[in-house]
Every structure is written in structure tokens, then in C-alpha cells.
Amino acid sequence: MKVILLQELKGKGIEGDVVDVANGFANNYLFPNNFAVKATKGNLKQLEQRRHNIAKREEGRIAAATELKEKIDGLKVQVDARVGEEGQLFGSVTTQMIADALTEQHGIEVDKKLIDLKAPIKTAGMHEATISLHRDIKADIALVVGDAEAIAAAEAAAAEEAAVAAAALEAEKLAAEAAAAAEAAEEGEEAAEAAEEEAVEAAETAEEAVEEAAE
Q: Domain 76-154 - what CATH class?
């Protein structure tokens, strides 16, 4: 079904865009929430008449998002969370926790739906989050999860894990080198045996030739 968006919809478009959506999505979500209207001839005609106003509103939204990006980009936000052994959290950090912390510490209100985490945050320490302010306008913030002691424990656990992984990788590398050396030695022995056999055959051939010549 073709619909006309009445506001920006993440992953779909912005106000005034005509997009194709599933019938159920339109009837059960977009229309009841006044996010879109059906793209009838009448509504399309009204859309053309409203293009100028829509463009002006879009300019205003872009300007506001750009200004907000300048305030947010690069901010450091402390997120309180219950931390267990080795810096592991009881649960995980939610986008609502981040939005609340951003408001409390910097006086900036952001809808939690705009906050994107690359992966679930389940450990204390430094993490990152991206806030989608408007289409291609995004701001990155640094998250400090847990207190200094919890962060130190998490960093120590991560360092230990990295050391174990590095040791395993080195052991695997040495084992591969040893296997290659053993294979090369075996190939060398086989080559030596083949050379010895060739030498014996050559000697026998030469001896036969001498005997034939003597006859």
C-alpha cells in the first residue's frame, strides 16, 4: 500500500514522502498513530499544495538537529549500574538509562528510541553510543559504566582475557611451525633415500657397462 508520511519514520522516510508499506503495518500502526495517510488522489493533491510548508519544516528540523549534534557530540556520560565480579553487570545498560543520565548530567533530553548501541553493554568500563538526531545527522557519546573500582576490575579481566587469547594464538603458531618443520625433515629424509637409491642404481649401471666393455 502507498502512504504519505506525516512525520519522519525511521527506516521509511520523512514528512511528505510517499512510500510502500504492508497493509497490516499501515492499518494497525501508521494510520491509528497518525503517522501517515493513504496516498489517494485527494491526499496527493493536498500534498503538492503543502510541499513548500513541508520543506520549511524540514529545514527547521535539520537546523535543530545540527545544533543539538554540536552540543551532544563527544560528551561523556556516566551510567550507574550494578557491577559484579570481573566487571560483569547485573543485567545490561538500557537506552532509557542512557537517556536519563544524559538529561541529569547535561540537561539534554533525547528520546531513548534515537539511541543506538552497537552491542549490548554488559560490562563496566568505556563504551560508545550513537544518537540519530535526523536522517544522516548523528552524534556519538562516550559512556562510562560503573565506578572507578568496577572499571579497573573490568579492564583487568579484559586484559587477562586478551593475554590468554594471545598465548593460545602463539601456541597455535608454534605448533604449526613445528608441524611444518617435521614435515620438511620427513621430506628431506625421503629425498636423501631417493638420492641414495639413484646413486646405487647409477653405480650398478656403470659396473654393467664396464663388464660389457671388457667382454
A: alpha beta
